[in-house]
Amino acid sequence: MTASAVVSAVGDSRRFKNGAQFGAWLGRVPRQRSSGGRSVLGSITKLGQSYLCMLSIQDAKSAVTTAERRSARASKWAAELRERAG
After folding, report:
1. Least enclosed by CB within 10 Å: which of 37, 48, 50, 64?
2. What angle do CA 20, 22, 25 make, to 5 degrees?
3. How far apart are CA 6 and CA 9, in angstroms?
4. 52: which residues sit within 8 A by CB, 6+ positions away?
5. What is the DSSP letter of 72?
6. Tell me: the pLDDT tens digits for 12-35?
């Protein structure tokens, strides 16, 4: 469901140079305040593609919840992270 929503919203994925640009397009970037040449990063903004963000957050929660039952390297990392972070 998420993949079809991303494909329909984005269209051509080559318009993004990297994952950071895609994240910025989604709206999941730190709020930036700058003054006098000094930049301060704040909390994550909630602007942008709210439906795609909701789907990606639900996917991530599902992946972390089921990571203990899987044997992939990323799943092991997520399970260890969950144990450390709580």
Report:
1. 37
2. 110
3. 5
4. 2, 5, 6, 9, 26
5. S
6. 889 999 988 888 888 888 888 888
